[in-house]
Structure formats: structure tokens, C-alpha cells
Amino acid sequence: MELRVIVSSRQGANYSTLLALAQAAEELGFDGFFRPDHYLSTGSGDGLPGPTDAWITLAGLARETRRIRLGTLVSPVTFRLPGPLAIQVAQVDEMSGGRVELGLGAGWFAAEHTAYGIPFPDKRYGLLEEQLAIVTGLWGTPVGESFSYVGEHYQLVDSPALPKPSQPQVPLIIGGGGGKRSSRLAAQYAADFNAGLLSLEDTKLCFDAVDEACGKADRDPRTLTHSIMQPLCVGRDEAQLARRAEAIGRDVAELRDSGLGGTPAEVVDKLGRFADIGTERAYLLVADPSDIEHLELVAAEVAPQL
Fold first, then answer.
1. Does residue 297 sit in the same domain as residue 231?
2. Is residue 209, in this structure, part of any structural domain at all?
3. Residue that finishes a domain, picked among 170, 205, 236
4. pLDDT in tens, the chain (306 residues)
């Protein structure tokens, strides 16, 4: 199972802190460093030092890392128009030497939109479907040709469809709770389907739904990576585990029940149960980006056993 790090947005973080965590993740052998795309804290604290913009941050990390995959899980379609988004992601992909992945979603956090004056329409899945079509259309248009698109929400006329990403195809990540629409979009566009913060049982239902959608789209579901995202809190012993849980404002028992909480052996066992239902990749949700020793413990005592 591949292990990727995703830094939580429960509190703010500055670029220096995120850079140190990303470079540590790369040095320790993790497959990727991802971040949510949010402008408002989701925790109960003061949110200091404030948010960082996802794609500006990833552009910096692209130049200061060498191997690790970089991306969002996920960028809301409400934040950016699809044309500029395609340009931004293609540019960061070139800056990284072809290591970028784009997670794209409909968005859910109304408060961050009202806090920063971003429109938040009630119906957003149409935006998501059109943005997926436009971004992939722009990247897939041969050099020298133009791209046009007429949809309900966006219209593009004779776009030169430049620049192109360094990768022949930037992997797209689509998440969802197993609904028909998200499963259909994943089957059509995604390289990675992420079941998100779900229980083992609900994750299995999600994977079954997206596999069924692949079948309807004449796609082999084995060509789609099945992934999860789970909050991470690992301690060598109960005392260290309790300290880590307290530092992020979480309960140890709750993390054991609905996340990757516990000793290294407990986390290995739970990831093994996710692997049994078809999970190929796990995004480890790190709530304290300053706790690099946390990643060191996972790299030393969890990763080698997977």
C-alpha cells in the first residue's frame, strides 16, 4: 500500500512549516505530499497564522522537493475558473518536473466562501462536471490546435490550450461517498478515487459503487486507484499517543475507532483491513504539521510492514 501525507486544515500553517513537513515526508520515503484547498480553519482554535493558498504553496514545494508527488485533495471548483486552473496546474507540473496531481471537488465549506467573498452556489456538481471536461480538454488538445467549449456554466472560444503539463496526463483525483454522480465522474476522469474519511464498511460500499460505475463506462476498475484518507495519530506507547491526541484536540478512543489511531501495530492492522477491501493508497491526515517525529515513527514502524 502506498502511503501519502496530507496536512490537515484544522489550523493555519505558514509556508516554512509546510516546507519542512514536505521535505521530511520526501526524505522518509512517503509517496506524496498533499494538502486540502481551504481558506478557513476547520478547528476550534484561532486559526493562526492563517491560511496558505494551495497552488501557490505547491508551486514553492515543486522547486524545493525532488521526488515526492504533490497535489490537492481537493480543490473546490468554486475557487477558480477552469481555464486559469488548467494553466496553474500545468505550470506547477512543469516546475516540479511532472510530479503534480489534481484533486477536484464540488466544495462543501460555505463559511470560508462567505468569509472571503467567494460565491457559493447551491448547485455545484454541474460546475464540477464542466470543469473536469474543460481542464482535460485543454490539456488534451494537440499543440497548434484550439479548444472551444459551450456549457451551461462556462464557455471557451478558440483557446490556444496552453501551456501543457510536463506529464502526458496529469492524474486526477475525485472523491465521494459512493453516490452515482461522483462514481460516474470518477469512472470517466479519475486516476484515483478517494473514499475520504469513511469507516471500513462504508469504504467498501464506496469502492463497490465506483467499480460498478467503471463497468457501465466499459473501464476496467483495476485501472483506477482505490484510496482512503484517514486521520493519523500514532504513539510508541499510550503516553505518547495521549500527548499527540491532546495536541490536536482529539480523543484517543475516537481516533482508534474512526481513524488511524493507536500504536504502530494497531495502525498496521487497520491498514491491513483496508487493504483487504481493495485499498491501494492511504492519505495520512496529519493535524500537527510541526510534529515531524510523528512521520518518522510511521516511516520506521508502520510503512515497512505494509
1. yes
2. no
3. 170
4. 999 999 986 677 899 999 999 999 999 999 999 999 999 987 777 778 888 999 999 999 999 999 999 999 999 999 999 999 999 999 999 999 999 999 999 999 999 999 999 999 999 999 999 999 999 999 999 999 999 999 999 999 999 999 999 999 999 999 988 789 999 999 999 999 999 999 999 999 999 999 999 999 999 999 999 999 999 999 999 999 999 999 999 999 999 999 999 999 999 999 999 999 999 999 999 999 999 999 999 999 999 999
177 found inside a domain: no
- The answer as to whether 148 is a domain residue is yes
pTM score: 0.96
Segments forming the whole domain that contains residue 36: 1-73+224-306
Q: Are residue 39 and residue 90 in the same domain, yes or no?
A: no
Same domain, 58 and 6: yes
CATH number of the domain residue 300 falls in: 3.20.20.30
Query: What's the structural domain count of the chain?
Result: 2
Regarding whether 145 and 95 lie in a shared domain, the answer is: yes
Q: Compute the Cα dihedral for 181, 187, 188, 190 and give only its sign.
A: positive
User: Domain check: are 63 and 116 in the same one?
Assistant: no
